[in-house]
Amino acid sequence: MFGSRLLRPAVWVAAMLWTLAAPACNVPVFRYALERWQADPYEIVVFHSAPLTAEQQALLETMEKTGQDRLANLAVNRVDLAGEMSQPRRMLWNAQEHPTPPWMVVRYPRPTGIERSAWAGPLSAEAVGSLLESPARRDIAQKLLRGDAVVWLLLASGDKRRDNEAGQLVDAEIRKLEQSLVLPERSPLDPPINPDLPLKITFSTVRVARSNPAEHMLVNMLLSWSTNLTATTEVMLFPIFGRGRVVPPAIGQEIRAEAIREMAEFLTGPCSCEVKAMNPGYDLLLTAGWDSLASYQEVMLPESPPLISLSQFAATAATNLTAPPSQPTVSLAISRPAPEPVGRHHLIRNVVVVLGIGAVFLAATTLVLKIKAGRRPRKLSFLLGVVSASVAVASLVAALAILQKHDARTEQIIAAKVVGTRQQMAKLEDDYRKLMLKMGFNVLILPKDQNLSDLYADDFASKYMPEEYAMRLARSRVATINHILPSLQQKVKWPERERTVLLMGVRGEVYIQSAQQKPLLEPVAQGTMILGHELARNFALSAGDKTPFMGREFTVAKVNTERGNKDDITVWISLSEAQELLAKPGLINGILALDCTCDTLDRLGRIRPEIARILPDTQIIEYASQALTRAEARQRAAAEAQASIQREKEGRDQLRTEREALAAVLVPVVMLGSSLWIGLLALANVRDRRGEIGLFRALGLRSRQLLLIFLGKAIVIGLAGACLGYFVGRFIGVMWREAPGAVPIQMALIEPRLLLLVLVAAPLLAALASWLPAVCAAQQDPAVVLREE
Amino acid sequence: MSALLQIESLSKSYLGPMGAISAVDEVSLAVDAGEFVVVQGPSGCGKTTLLLAAGALLQPTRGRVLLKGQDPYKLSSGQRAAFRAVNVGFVFQQFHLVPYLDVLDNILAPTLALGQDGDVPARARELAERFGLTDRLRHVPAALSTGERQRVALARALLNHPKLLLADEPTGNLDEQNGLVVLRCLTEFARVGGAVLLVTHAPRPSDHTGRVLTMTGGRIR
What we know:
The complex is a heterodimer. Chain A is of the alpha+beta class.
């Protein structure tokens, strides 16, 4: 069972608690985790004594930036051994075995409570590279990002039979589960999920060998938290979901169909939507663009907006507000991607590479010719053949590796771009919202029998409804509006000042339970009032002054700035005092609100039916210009952001196409050249060994045997060239960096399928290239040779 | 009883730029087991062509060659190669040693065609000892004297216990002393039942007591 030896009780108790505590949310666990649960950061503690070198500094900055940009879930902490250290840091340092500064310690995320370190070792480019990424982790992230419910990671034991049995069992079971498991039925009350990512049950597997050096960091993350795990050499199965949350493994014989099914049912079942900590597992350190999947964006307002009144809402502003404000658009423009320097320097580099290869061929040919003038270059000929085959293989492998790296880098860039754009969008939304708030609430809920003509004529509603309506609205988790503000407003005589004013009683916002919102305004405290600019000016009142109002004494809490509308002659007091003064206990005559962040221009078409279901005795009006402005601006900003990402993608795609096109020409040309060269070398070899061939034929060697000897030699050349070329090409690909300072992309030196391919293809190619010379050798007439020799 | 090597009315002509050139013309010859026959004649008289045809290496234009009563040219190319490997040993004026193989491997070269059974390496060493090459086993041909090279070629020719030894100017590149060693070896081979056909442009070898045939213009007189 998953985590049975170590955490089985905890895992399942947590799961039970989680299930019992779950309110009505039918988003599957894996999907909720993917969209809502931030991956907990690993703490990278770097101990150093002497000043860091430029390279070490760059490595740290790379890690720090990766963490800050939320490309990976990590946070870097530098600890100067020469300075003062906290007790925990000192203990951590003392716990290290033979550390040599700068020394890097990778700590599991704090919420896991795991005290053991995931990994520790010298700070180096290799360590940082393998920490940030590895082929398996990149694969896992890609699979989760494309919507796979669970990635089942099989940590191989090294016992091929056991590993294969476990792998086959997992494969068979997850294929069955994909067909049999059913997603929970969605509820209208469910939180929204990203509509661009299909919700479906798809499982995938990733197999990792313990001994794979490219995955040593992943293996450490999986095992190091428990001495039991590190001591176990059996095959293990780790389910991974969400943003790389890994559940303790099933080990050896525990990898059974029932265990896989139970875990799959749990992870594809309905979730509590909220409590990540109550769920089993911990997060892996992954570099991925998770934020691109979030279906919501939390926007916080930096400051409270001004108090507004019905008058402002009802005012028919002459200003044309349909055009979006220019400032946010400018800020978005700044975020557009700087074009990557493509094209020319790549071309120059590639031309240099081609010329270099040509020069090597020329040099080799010259050498051969010179040596041929002396003694037979048999070994040199073989060596040149190997070099030639390796050049062909290396060009192919390097081209593939570079394209592979390009793709990985593209994902990085796009992920970063998505994150950046989302942040810009959040800021933009915030800017728009602030601008919109200056225009006031844009939805007004009124008693159903309120005559709108009277409203517009009098500036306040003459019909009343229970204040409880606002609470009912909030409790209902209404989705199409937010920021609910009940109010009681009436034009009254300020008897002590003999002035007609607008009295507005407000109690502050009633919070919608499901919304995480910052209030647009704070309530007015009992015994205090907020004055409109004109009233304060006329009566020479300022904050702190006391003044009677309708028989009660109020303290002026604040004087609003001049707004040029009826707010300037409005008095805001608390709703309960307004109800008492107006003899309307428990009543209000309007509920102000902001419309939702709907992506449609027909907001009223969505708001009215929902409000009507909750408050049938009401009617809704909307200030169209404000609403339209807001919706259009948001849509335009979103479109611009999307276009920005699209431009980046297109740029990268174009670069890839260019590289692919170059490789498509260069690699075949190099392979053809190499093949010709191998063929020429074989022909020269046949000519050099003419006497030998005649002799062996005279001694009884058959034509077919001779043919096989020459083809065999070509195959050996191909095999040696494949091995050499593969590692040279792969090394070039691994070392390749698209841009200085770019986050290193880890790539395994050995890609088994590619290695196998070149080990088959290169000998075949060499044999084909040597075919004609070999046939020539086999067809030689020994009598002619012996007579001429 | 038929001869070990029976050549009947053998003719061989080559196609040259001026038309067909007759190298061997209606030559008939029989060599019995235990016989050492020398064919003497000037350069270009067709001696080497006769030797190659006798050794199943060169298809005659007309006539036939019977070795141990079998016509090798009626066999397939592969069968003929195997037949040659089993029955015929060659010794050339130019030795034709493989330059990158040492003495022992050169002696063992015929096993490339026939494979190697258990006593072949021992026989190779025995032959090397017989020809005074024991201390030269790991030397490559370039490190040997001319006489030593020819002795290696002789040892190689004898490895498979051939019935017929064909020698083309085997002493042509040797000094008198080394030439005598080679001739004695060939004589010994014939004495123990083998057949030797030697072609040379030189006068009759001094130690030779067998038949000597003269060849001129492609014919034996």
